[in-house]
Write a structure and sequence with these properties.
By secondary structure, this protein is an all-alpha fold. It is built from ten helices and no strands. This is RNA polymerase sigma-70 factor (ECF subfamily).
Length: 188
């Protein structure tokens, strides 16, 4: 927290410079930005989202975007801190919009939307025992494996998955993204 306060022993972080370093792939610069701004960003996200898990997700997603898009920051067009918080605000608003959609499908089964198709585990069991896809899917947590199979075999949307599994939309998106990365790495 000393970095954010700029005490006499620790100078304030130059966000413009740190973002430039991030754009060049410097992970230490991203860590410095995180250490400097994440606590304050979490507070802002909490005020917007009112749930700690969602606020943490918004901050996490913000830093993923900062890492990916740091080269698009132009100090001539604005302040680095404003750029960071604009990303956070947009991510929080997207989560709020998604949460509203999730509420529409929260009672998935009572709406009569459950199909008679076989469940995700039955589909996985049908995969060849020697297949690398089955081996890689078995490495995923059961709920994440279920989310992947429901999405890619049964074609459920993120909102439908959130309703069926009873978790926030942002969590489903995060599970799908991380699970696909894990499967890609495992299959390689």
């Amino acid at each position: 927290m000393a970095l954010a306060l700029g005490t006499a022993s620790t100078p304030a972080l130059d966000l413009n410079h740190a973002l430039g370093q991030c754009a060049r792939g410097d992970r230490a610069a991203l860590r410095a930005i995180y250490d400097s701004e994440a606590p304050r960003m979490l507070g802002v996200a909490m005020r917007l989202l009112r749930r700690r898990a969602l606020a943490e997700e918004a901050v996490h997603d913000t830093f993923l975007q900062v890492w990916r898009k740091a080269e698009s920051f132009d100090p001539a067009r604005g302040d680095a801190r404003s750029w960071l918080y604009a990303i956070l605000r947009n991510r929080a608003l997207n989560i709020l919009r998604g949460e509203t959609r999730t509420d529409l499908v929260e009672d998935f089964e009572p709406m009569g939307l459950v199909s008679d198709e076989e469940n995700a585990e039955a589909v996985m069991l049908r995969l060849s025992d020697t297949g690398s896809l089955k081996r890689c899917l078995e490495r995923l947590e059961p709920t994440r494996r279920q989310a992947i199979t429901l999405a890619y075999i049964h074609g459920l949307s993120h909102g439908e998955l959130a309703g069926r599994l009873g978790v926030p939309l942002g969590t489903i998106k995060s599970w799908i993204r991380r699970s696909l990365l894990a499967l890609r790495e495992c299959m390689a």
